[in-house]
Amino acid sequence: MATLLYRLGRFSFRRRRLTLAAWVLLLALFALGASTLSKPTTGAFSIPGTESSQAMEVLAERFGAGSDAASAKVVFTAADPMTAKSLADAVAELKQAPQVAAVADPVFSEDKRTAYATVTYTVPAADVTTESRDALLAVEAGAGVGVEFSGEVTRNAEASHLAEGLGIAVAALVLMITFGSMVAAGLPLLTALIGVGLGMLGIQIATGFFDLSSSTSALATMLGLAVGIDYALFVISRYRHEITRTDDPEEAAGRAVGTAGSAVVFAGLTVIIALAALAVTGIPFLTAMGLAAAATVAIAVLVTLSLVPAVIGFAGRRILPRGARRVTGTPFGERWARGVLKHRVLAVVLPLAVIATVALPALDLRLALPDDSTAAVGSTQRKAYDQLAAGFGAGSNGPLIIVVDAGAAAAAQKAIVGLDDVVMVTPPATDPSGTTAMLTVIPASAPTSEATQQLVHDIRGLGIASLAVTGATAVNIDVSDKLSAALVPYLAIVVGLAFLLLMLVFRSVLVPIKATLGFLLSVAASFGALVAVFQNGHLAGLLGVETTGPIVSVMPIFLIGILFGLAMDYEVFLVTRTREEFVHGAAPDDAIVSGMRHGARVVTAAALIMMSVFAGFILADDTIIKSLGFALAFGVAVDAFLVRMTIVPAVLSLLGRSAWWLPRWLDRALPNVDVEGEALSRRRELAGV
Questions:
Q1: 626 burial via Cβ count (<10 Å: 0-12, 13-18, 19+)
Q2: 409: closest CA among 425, 395, 432, 424?
Q3: What does the alpha-carbon distance between residue 79 and residue 113 come to, in Å, rounded to a whole number?
Q4: CA-based nearest residue to 237, from 581, 571, 598
Q5: Which residue has the higher pLDDT, 160 or 468?
């Protein structure tokens, strides 16, 4: 592999104008495709085959209620009691709005000071136009009557780019400090932005063929920026090292891509495997998000291997800082490594104690999907949610729909009324054929509460054969249950594939095991911090978290997949250099010190960049993105500084030569991918370089 990438690096450097033109042309083609094919994303979560989804299909077939038709609630509030006549003009205006199929008559609270009307559309939420959304939000109800709106239709799909901008600004500062050169600092940013641009345009094209979650672009942007900058950082750092060993810049570019580029390939593969493996969960929206993010990471790898050496060629000697050849003192990485090895037992025990303490809140982890209760304070969705809860009770925001055979409807109603946490059960409504009945259950508790989840399970446990529970709340509960069930097999597949990949890279059994156990420590710490802030509310105000509650159900599986890939990045970049020194004859501890001397500074910069990019997303309004950004930033900090740069060298030192043990039969069976670039070393020796 090293030889192949060496040739690619030299070609891209030598034919840099052609390489740059090819990427620019590709960017233009993607932009053209996106402008032609893109469609709105969706914020809905559903899983085909679950009880709630199947019941939705029955409703569509028997009652003519589109299972995927969009809807919204318009909430009216006033200081004085309202009447249907006082809201007639507003309801008439709603009926005239584009794409509206029907508007239900307003429902009033007991004191008549709160009312709501349900608006049903002719199309799914993804197909509701901006014109229709604007017409809905423009509805007014006269003096003294407040109007707020809730539902997926009301959410603007356009995302703020403040988070990306902040992350890029911090990344630029870190790169400037690391490289000491404006040109060198700018190159990783430039190539990463090109890669992310291609990824985002590709996602826009994909919306023309698939229904993608509204969080898909943000997740892909977050990962694309982080890995794109980091991968370019590693190759450029290696180039600056190689240029001191040869007067031929093209040769230096080839060596940089052949060595650091090999590590980038395998680091990228671990991230891609972790994201693409989300497909095994069988959850469509999760699969789409994972594949979109994996494609963006793959683009980042390709950009690093071909475009980075090309832009290095354009930069020339300006990529080196003034006085670059004056090296004084002992590098930070070497000082850190010697300190860790001197106190190697303490370097294992102390970080473990810190991680265990931080991870403790994870024992109280509660999961649920987001609703309007998690919307930003002050938003119309949050106001509507709070007003409905105040006027009709918390459960009014999450009614349950019961689908049952008409003959069993009366018995079902009587049984459900007797359950805990039930405020009301509407009389059954039958379909035109008289065979199927529908009931609406209003819980006493909020949609994401444990009591409502238990109520859904209790209704399903009544033993009425034809009964099914659906509605947005039931759908969300089914999604959460399916996600929890998918977590263990997903983790087994990701860890298993990555273990084989790492064994191939490191030619060792114990190093991949150590890498995997270290990842579990990082995940545990991330979960603990996530629960402490977003569920329990500690430091929530400091981080701008306005609403606390259950953690978003998709978070564990996303966090495990993404953190695993990123953790393996640092493992590959640090430990491959250690193995390179070891196979060239260095003693185990000397190899560790040498690997840290060359890699610690760059890995520190890479971790700070990833942390800054992820932390920038804490400013996002979307609950999934905000909490994922925080968890990833925290997880990267723990993994890079406590696990990879402290625990890993200490454990490698304790293991000694046995760390690199591999059974002979397995060594013969595994292909030699030459990540360390031994073929390039032999090439230099033969050339007398």
A1: buried
A2: 425
A3: 6
A4: 598
A5: 468
Give the sign of the dihedral formed by CA 488, CA 489, CA 492, CA 498: negative
Identify the sign of the CA torsion 532, 533, 537, 538. positive
Q: Please state, in angstroms and rounded to a whole number, the distance separating the CA atoms of residues 214 and 319.
A: 39
Which residue type, as a one-letter code, is found at position 407? G
Average pLDDT value for residue range 404-409: 92
**What pLDDT is attached to residue 247?**
81
How many whole angstroms separate alpha carbon 71 and alpha carbon 120?
A: 4
CA gap 638, 653 in Å, rounded: 20
CA distance 250 to 160: 41
Strand pairing partners for 120? Answer: 71, 102
Residue from 382, 412, 387 nearest 400 by CA: 412
Which tokens sit at 3?
């030889």
Spatial contact of 450 and 366, defined as CB atoms under 8 Å apart: yes
Helix/strand/coil for 70: strand
Strand pairing class (468-470; 145-150)? unpaired
CA nearest neighbour of 643 among 430, 350, 362? 350
Residue 570 contacts by C-beta under 8 Å, 6 or more apart in sequence? Answer: 603, 606, 607, 639, 640, 644
pLDDT at position 159 = 46
* Nearest CA among 99, 55, 62 for reference residue 470: 55
CB distance 403 to 380 below 8 Å: no
Residues 371-387 have pLDDT tens digits of 777 777 788 988 999 99
The 3-state secondary structure of 495-563 reads HHHHHHHHHHHHCCCHHHHHHHHHHHHHHHHHHHHHHHHHHCCCCCCCCCCCCCCCEECCHHHHHHHHH
Would you state the pLDDT for residue 129? 86
Distance CA 478, CA 260 (A): 45
- CB proximity list for 446: less than 8 A, separation 6 or greater: 373, 389, 394, 395, 397, 398, 452
Give yes or no for a contact between 417 and 387, defined as CB atoms under 8 angstroms apart. no
Average of per-residue pLDDT values in the chain:
84
Tens-place pLDDT, residues 471-511: 888 888 888 888 888 888 888 888 888 788 888 888 889 99
CA distance 521 to 525: 6
204-218 mean pLDDT: 72
Show the tokens assigned to 147: 């109007």
Provide the Cα torsion 46, 468, 425, 411; round to 10°: 180
Question: Quick check: 155 and 137 in contact, CB under 8 A?
Answer: no
With tokens 């003294």, the residue in question is 144
Tokens of 419: 């359950």
The helix/strand/coil state of 409 is helix
Dihedral sign of CA atoms 293, 297, 299, 303 in order: positive
Instruction: Give pLDDT tens digits for 302-344.
Output: 999 999 999 998 887 778 766 544 445 677 888 999 999 999 9
What are the C-alpha distances in Å from 495 to residues 154, 155, 487, 522? 40, 37, 12, 14
End-to-end CA distance of the chain: 21
Residues paired with residue 469 on neighbouring β-strands, in sequence order: 402
Which amino acid makes up residue 179? Answer: F
pTM, whole model, 2 decimals?
Answer: 0.77
- What tens digit of pLDDT does each residue of 549-558 get? 788 887 888 7
Q: Are 145 and 85 in contact (CB under 8 A)?
A: no
Interatomic CA distance for residues 639 and 570, integer angstroms: 8
Q: 3-class DSSP state for residue 151?
A: coil
Radius of gyration for the alpha carbons in the chain, expressed in angstroms and rounded: 29
Q: Supply the pLDDT for residue 211.
A: 67
